[in-house]
Amino acid sequence: MLVVPRYSHHSFTGRLRQHRETSYGLLLFLVAACGLVIVSATWSQKAQAGAPCYSLSSCGLDGSEAYAVSAVVPPARPNKPAIITSPSSGQSFSTNPVTVSGTCPDGSLVKVFTNGILVGSVICSPSDKFSVQVDLVIGQNVLTAFPFNANDQQGPAGNSVTVTLTQPPGGPGFSTELLLQSVDYYRGVPPGQQVDWPITIVGGQAPYAVSVDWGDGTSDVVTRLAPGPFTVSHTYNMAGTGYLGTFPLIIRASDAAGHTAYLQLTTLVNPDMFGTATATSKAKGNVLLVIWPLWIVLLLMVISFWLGERREKHIMEKRLEALA
Q1: Contacts of 271 (CB under 8 A, 6+ apart)
Q2: Cβ contacts of residue 151 below 8 Å, gap of 6+?
Q3: What is the reported pLDDT for 49?
Q4: Pairing state between β 92-93 and 160-165
Q5: Is 150 in the same domain as 209?
Q6: Which of 212, 240, 273, 216 shows the shortest CA–CA distance to 74?
Q7: What is the pLDDT of residues 212-251, one digit of tens each?
Q8: What one-character-per-residue DSSP string does 80-110 give?
Q9: Cα(85)–Cα(70) distance, integer angstroms
């Protein structure tokens, strides 16, 4: 039989009723049900905050409710070395730059060093190969290559190749007196966000002309009046066209004496790796912050009314006993 609560006032008879007028059982059931709903919503929000969602639809949100956050999943450390297959040990060169190529773990970022100095970087191709142009210094050059992940964790060491750069009689053109260096071998940004590359000019004779090829069809020319560090900046309006969304960054410099320098680096412009993940909406979180206190207040109100009714009934019973 369906029982429908009535909220109309009972006529006053002067007698104590056998039943309390408020359906506390029903009220407590409704309050408990609301509590379960709030707990479920809170748990769901925490679960969504802990798990990545990469589109508004997968998060169950529309654009008005979501806000963008950046997230990068840490990649595994490379488990294979980068092996230089060209050039071969013992080769001699008379011009710069020189192409260094070899094999590498797929998706790793390969740093190439000569005599322990970083001279270039490139991302490993899907065919597990790399190729990058580097500047040699006059004399002996010990070339090494190491694979790194995005967290700058190095993989196992590979081979080393020793080559020589000879200086032709007369004429400048070698970077032994002019070097380009960078503390970073790659940088990553989403499209539409400015990327800053720190570059350092070492040696040479001022002034310097620096050409920066950003890899997306644009280039800049910078004049420097003295050696030392400086920063070049650029905003990519599209994702990288290379493997994993990369652009090669090629920097050339020349000084007043005619010496030249070359440096190739890598810029990662991949919207799937930088800044496209969406999180649970602010609005939903703010609503829960308001609902929880309201639910607690409602529960306390029900308990206080129940205790107050019991207290009043107890007082009235004592008074009736005293009159009797």
Answers
A1: 190, 191, 239, 245
A2: 74, 75
A3: 52
A4: parallel
A5: no
A6: 273
A7: 999 999 999 999 999 999 999 999 999 988 888 889 999 9
A8: S--EEEES-TT-EESSS-EEEEEE--TTPEE
A9: 38
Question: Minimal CA–CA distance to 114: which of 84, 154, 144, 86?
Answer: 144
pLDDT digit string, tens, across residues 147-204: 998 778 899 999 999 999 987 555 554 444 688 988 887 788 899 999 999 999 998 8
Q: Which pair of structure tokens corresponds to residue 21?
A: 């007028």
Could you give the CA distance from residue 149 to residue 152 in angstroms, rounded to a whole number?
5
List beta partners, residue 179.
202
Which of the listed residues 170, 187, 206 is the one where a domain comes to its end? 170
Return d(Cα 178, Cα 228) in angstroms, integer: 11
Is position 283 within any domain?
yes
How much is the mean pLDDT over the chain? 78
Tell me, yes or no, whether 267 and 315 share the same domain: no
DSSP character at residue 111: E
Beta strands at 277-278 and 228-235: parallel, antiparallel or unpaired: unpaired
Q: pTM here? A: 0.58
Place of tokens 């090494």: 144
| Domain span including residue 202 | 175-272
Place of tokens 């800049």: 220
Looking at the structure of the chain, the number of domains it has is: 3
Measured between alpha carbons, how far is 322 from 80 in angstroms, rounded to an integer?
Answer: 94
- Cβ-contact 284, 65 below 8 angstroms: yes
End position of a domain, from candidates 139, 170, 201: 170
Do 76 and 163 share a domain, yes or no?
yes
- For 114, the enclosing helix (H) or strand (E) is strand 109-114
Q: How far apart are CA 232 and CA 259, in angstroms?
A: 21
Q: Are 155 and 105 in contact (CB under 8 A)?
A: yes
Angle, vertex CA 79, rays to CA 76 and CA 80, nearest 5: 140
Task: Round to whole Å and give the CA distance between 155 and 146.
Answer: 7
